[in-house]
Known about the structure:
This protein is mainly β. The protein has a single domain, classed as Lipovitellin-phosvitin complex, beta-sheet shell regions, CATH 2.30.230. The protein has two helices and 13 strands; from the N terminus they run E-E-E-E-E-E-H-H-E-E-E-E-E-E-E. It has helices at 138-152, 155-160; strands at residues 34-35, 49-61, 70-82, 85-97, 117-122, 125-128, 165-166, 170-173, 184-201, 204-219, 226-238, 243-256, 268-281. An eleven-stranded antiparallel β-sheet has the order 6-5-4-3-2-13-12-11-10-9-8. The longest helix has 15 residues, at 138-152.
Amino acid sequence: MKSIRALWMVTAALACNACRKPAVPRALPSESPSYQLANSAPGYSVGTRYIDRLVIAPGKDEGHPSAPSITMEQDIRWEVLAPDRMELKVLRYEFLDTTTRKSIRPEPEGSLTGVPIYLRKSADQWQPEQPLPAELSNESRRRIEAYALTESKNYEQLMYSTIPRHVGESWTTRDPKAFFDEPADDVSGLCIVTFTAVEASQGKTIAHLHLDTEFQGRPRSSGSNWTRWHFLTEVRRSIEDKMDLETTSEGIVESWAAEATLGDAPKSQHQSSAHIVREILK
């Protein structure tokens, strides 16, 4: 679920409603139909191509209510070239004023947009294929590292598991690898996944999943400040393709200074939402 990835990149936001305690996981009788939600091994078959279209809309920062509202929109095309090699290309990466829909940041020098980037897998870890194009900025290089880290997480196996699941069943993951899409320390968290429904749509079997996720840690990019995320996510997932076709997340992000404790009042708190649609290419 690259999606919630990004995430982070994938952030979330349902103000106080998102802060309720997660429901207790439950299992259903084994005689109800079961569905395999994730492949037994990570990755997709050679030749698989798709575009992920991501929109992140941060809400107002409680500490800076007059700051403009900004939406980040990004389209990335992926292609599996070999079991150990992938190509990605950022087709669009924009920051827009949420109200006017006008770009508020010009395309920076050394942008990743339009540049083919290759990832290579070794010892179960994806890494950018070297050398990277010399013209890329440091920001672009950090984003490539984040994409590679996300691919290495085996997120779908961690969140959905490889065990056949029943509609109405819920389960948990506490694996630190499931949280953050960037290097971070002191990571802990909990995600409760509930398989809420299944439907037929355009020739595919679609699973509906609800995720209640809360995690915290010290992202190194923030100077090791504490960050805590709590978000609710709705997913439409293709059983046949083993892919998330649509992901919608809403929640709250809080941060503290590195020397603070999580019992202190956060220095910043904001709401945010993310929407990801995946287009599978023929």
